[in-house]
Design brief:
Length: 326
């Protein structure tokens, strides 16, 4: 009997770290490590089973220091980051999550900005966590490594092939496999509200595609369309723009609000807001993000990919399974 591969970890750190003294974050408590693919002493996850993995991390901001922690794959390939540029006395936490596709022996870890102006805070609480797990393994009928290192047009960064350099196709799926649907995208540019009056709500669009299993997310329109009814998990993180408020809503259909993030502070600081939830979806339903379009609102992002949006099928309902195995 062939069993599906399992790989998952969750680790915490109870010590602070100053930029310049430690770059790769290590961890002193391992909560779970299915497959032993994560090494807390080095802070590195190494892929044994090619497929689509979901990673999430939360880091604490040190008083009077800035915060910048990057999720990195294979060296200097930045996938996403947590950032706070405000040097106040307060302590807070920031979170980020993304789904990326990994090949055999790929490594994933967290990097702290090496300048002493940056630091992370934790204690026995702990403030700092790092988790990851295999959502969809590759199979002989579902080879799927989607290029997740996209550089902007006309600019070729080291280790970042240009857009469209996809090596495999997640859409090929065997007739007897369970339904698969997942996406993870990011923005590398900010979005500024400009309208003074009411107008039709427009979905937030994205220019980086990490994975798009099934091809059910359209990054140009910014909308995910359900093809397999069931329970889906969605998570998003947005960056706050200096001197602008942020208000981003997770919407379904024609504009039903399911969850949101909000920060009305209009100071110069840049920081992040995150939100996540499970939703039951029927075939043909759409899910999208709406950023308030009036003047005074904005989201912030750059090549560090402050703004991300992910979703995947957790449990298909009986209709999806019946159609797939019939």
């Amino acid at each position: 009997m062939i069993t599906s591969p399992h790989s998952a970890f969750s680790a915490t750190r109870s010590r602070s770290a100053l930029g310049g003294t430690q770059r790769t974050l290590t961890f002193d408590r391992l909560l779970i490590n299915i497959g032993d693919d994560f090494n807390p002493d080095t802070g590195r996850f190494r892929c044994r089973f090619p497929g689509a993995y979901y990673f999430s991390f939360t880091v604490g901001k040190f008083p009077e220091k800035m915060l910048s922690v990057m999720l990195v794959k294979n060296g200097l390939e930045v996938q996403a980051m947590a950032y706070d540029g405000y040097r106040n006395q307060g302590r807070k936490v920031h979170s980020q999550s993304v789904m990326i596709s990994l090949k055999l022996m790929d490594t994933v870890y967290l990097l702290l900005q090496e300048s002493p102006n940056y630091a992370i805070y934790s204690n026995v609480g702990p403030y700092i966590t790092f988790s990851g797990y295999l959502v969809y393994p590759e199979s002989t009928s579902s080879l799927g490594y989607v290029n997740n290192h996209l550089s902007p047009p006309g600019l070729h960064l080291p280790g970042c092939p240009p857009p469209g350099d996809h090596q495999y196709n997640w859409r090929r799926r065997g007739a007897h496999e369970e339904p698969r649907s997942a996406f993870s995208v990011a923005r590398t540019t900010s979005a500024l509200g400009k309208s003074k009056g009411r107008r039709e709500r427009e979905a937030l669009t994205f220019d980086v595609e990490y994975v798009n299993i099934g091809g059910h997310f359209n990054k140009t329109s910014g909308r995910f369309t359900c093809h397999f009814p069931g329970a889906y998990y969605f998570a998003f993180t947005v960056g706050k723009h200096p001197r602008r408020a942020v208000s981003v809503k997770l919407m379904t259909g024609r504009g039903e609000v399911k969850a949101m993030v909000f920060d009305e502070d209009r100071s110069l600081r840049r920081e992040m807001q995150s939100q996540s939830l499970l939703l039951p979806l029927r075939r043909g339903e759409t899910v999208w993000l709406y950023s308030q379009q009036e003047e005074g609102y904005a989201i912030y992002s750059n090549q560090g990919r402050f703004t991300t949006f992910s979703g995947f099928l957790v449990y298909p309902d009986s209709e999806s399974l019946d159609r797939n195995f019939s």
